[in-house]
Write a structure and sequence with these properties.
Belongs to the short-chain dehydrogenases/reductases (SDR) family. InterPro entries: NAD(P)-bd_dom_sf, Sc_DH/Rdtase_CS, SDR_fam. This is Tropinone reductase-like 3. This protein is α/β, with parallel strands linked by helices and 272 residues long. It has a single domain, classed as Rossmann fold (3-Layer(aba) Sandwich), CATH 3.40.50. It has nine helices and nine strands. Strands 5-4-3-6-7-8-9 form a seven-stranded parallel beta sheet, with helices on both faces. β4, α3 and β5 form a beta-alpha-beta unit. The protein is globular, with a radius of gyration of 18 Å. 43% of the residues are buried. Bound molecules: NADP nicotinamide-adenine-dinucleotide phosphate. NADP nicotinamide-adenine-dinucleotide phosphate binds next to α2.
Length: 272
């Protein structure tokens, strides 16, 4: 077994990187689509599902990013198709699903991961166009994508929405973003009721994970330390932590779980 050791604030952690280490193929024969999956948490989710046997369809706004991510995944032996899809673009959502079905004939797993956070303005000073963009990308696009995907979802299929710890306590510097993530917790419940019994719908709420999206938190030493100190485990999350939780909820290991949210935030307070 090959172990990859990662040092975080003086402590050694083992990261699961290879098929042998993951050791399971829970998605053999399954088709998984992941939005916003050319870097960060989305790419890690696509990689994890692919390593576990899924044919994955990745997507994001930029062709170049899609092409590069496809190459990375192919090098790991993953069966992958890349499609440009800005989640707020109706035609691109249609094409994403159409190309998936043309190539693989069905959909077993949908991971809705795309989100934007375009402002640090207080709510009462946020422009209407920004409020609309946050709602459109972070919430509405998920519903519209699932409307396209629904006719192709198999019995036993699974949907995972990516929310945020910020959904439990929207913070002043990203209040409306937090509120859209709160909305995803409700959307998870509503979709789970509507899509049962054939499709389960759950939600992962990540804590702080060093990605491009969270660079403003994780690149500054003082802010990063403050974020680490909010956790019980005294570290930031990894993309692999989020991918593991998502894969669990998407897999048959979670076959009696629907309408739930799983906080993956190192113990940052969320709810009882
Ligand atoms: P990231 O590393 O910055 O990656 C963002 C990805 O989204 C890129 O592949 C980007 O590619 C794509 N993208 C951006 N806008 C898009 C759009 N409108 N339509 C389709 N694709 C789009 O971000 P991340 O940190 O992994 O975040 C992923 C999810 O985790 C988000 O929902 C975020 O709210 C959530 N989350 C993150 C953290 C954290 O600390 N990182 C914490 C809580 C929750 P293109 O530029 O090519 O479009």
């Amino acid at each position: 077994m090959r172990e990859v050791k990662v040092k975080v604030r003086g402590q050694l952690f083992l990261e699961m990187k290879t098929t042998e280490m993951i050791g399971r193929r829970r998605f053999e024969g399954k088709v998984a689509i992941v939005t916003a999956s050319t870097q960060g948490i989305g790419l890690a989710i696509a990689e994890r599902l692919g390593i576990e046997g899924a044919s994955v369809v990745i997507s994001s706004r930029k062709q170049k990013n899609v092409d590069e991510a496809v190459e990375k995944l192919k090098k790991k032996g993953i069966q992958v198709l890349g499609v440009v899809c800005h989640v707020s673009n109706a035609q691109q959502r249609k094409d994403f699903i159409r190309k998936t079905v043309e190539k693989y004939g069905k959909i077993d797993v949908v991971v809705s991961n795309a989100a934007v956070n375009p402002t640090v303005d207080p709510l009462l000073q946020t422009q209407e166009s920004i409020l609309d963009k946050l709602w459109e990308t972070n919430v509405k696009a998920t519903v519209l994508l699932l409307q396209e995907a629904a006719p192709h979802l198999q019995k036993g299929s699974s949907v995972v929405l990516i929310s945020s710890i910020a959904g439990f306590h929207p913070q002043s510097t990203m209040a409306m973003y937090g509120v859209t993530k709160t909305a995803l917790l409700g959307l998870t419940k509503a979709l789970a009721a509507e899509m049962a019994p054939d499709t389960r719908v759950n939600c992962v709420a990540p804590g702080f994970v060093p990605t491009h999206f969270a660079a403003y938190i994780t690149k500054d030493e003082v802010v990063r330390k403050a974020a680490e100190d909010q956790t019980l485990l005294q570290r930031l999350g990894t993309r692999e932590d989020m991918a593991a939780a998502t894969a669990f909820l998407a897999s048959d290991d979670a076959s009696y779980i629907t309408g739930e949210n799983l906080v993956v935030a190192g113990g940052i307070p969320s709810r009882l």
